[in-house]
Amino acid sequence: MELFLSICLGIGLSASCGFRVFMPMLLANIAAMNGWITPGEQFAWLTTLPAFFALLSATVLEIGGYYIPFIDNLLDTIATPAAVIAGTLLTTSVIEIDSPVVHWGLGLIIGGGTAGIIQLGTGALRLLSSKTTAGIGNPVVSTAENVASFTISGLAIFLPVIAIALVGLLFFWLFRKLSKLKKRSS
């Protein structure tokens, strides 16, 4: 059961990385510093005060950058590989498996894959928003992403099973939304 919950936590945090790279890492840092989650030994840095300040600074800069028109599209280009890396790290940090190959493999496939899919979907939505509203609608998209990242991270930390169900619903909604927007723009 503990492995299942840690996988749910990892998936929830990595999905949040698809919306914002640093916010889920900051929230995981705060949770680890308060003993709400326990990262593996290799990830003891996640419980430190320097990590808190670095992640807090990165989170503020990332959120602020997404409210600047067209910089937000540039950030999506950078955020896609960064989200995969962050999702992999967060998932690997909370799953305890003795085999390093399986441990990092699960982190990459589950965590990196989830973060990458969400990031690609949000990047496509932002691109469509830029195309259809000349960037005027992008702050609305950014705000929704901030709220989603914070909410899913919080649920993943405190209610991991609910977070995994929410991620499943999010995948379903995202694919439907992208399909409708793609048909409408064609």
TrEMBL record:
It comes from Dyadobacter linearis. Residues 7-178 form the DUF4126 domain. This is DUF4126 domain-containing protein. It comes from the Bacteria. Pfam families: DUF4126. The chain crosses the membrane at residues 42-61, 73-95, 147-175. Keywords: Membrane, Transmembrane, Transmembrane helix. The keyword GTP-binding does not apply.
